Amino acid sequence: MTQARISDGGKMTLPVEVRNWLQLKDGDRVSFVRDEHGVRIANAGIFALEKAQTALAGVAERAGLDSEEAVVKMCKEIRKESSQAHMANTALLAIDEIQQSMIGEAERSGLDSDEKIVDYCKEIRRALYEEHYARHD
Predict the structure, then answer these.
(1) pTM of this prediction?
(2) Which domains does the chain have, with CATH numbers?
């Protein structure tokens, strides 16, 4: 049996032997787990992983994921869908930004009706058309 002493302020140094049992390194966290047998100390990372595995037990089988390859394939599909959704959101944000900029420019230019905007676009098109043919003459 290995023991440790609690110092002022509640600090305790885990003996090397216990750190080795728990596979702890400097900076690792520990969990204090109370159960029907008392309190035990666990490597917090390993303990969290074990809890997640217990909570997710059977989920893969119920989802029809019968191999590691099937799980990897599903994860790749989810990442792809997530990436596509992100790109679509980015495009929508860019369109919104362009629309807001155009609305602001139209207001500053006195284009306060659809008719004025159409006329303005026709003027721009005519000017570009004339400039294009002036260069090619």
Answers:
(1) 0.41
(2) 8-57 (2.10.260), 60-135 (no CATH)
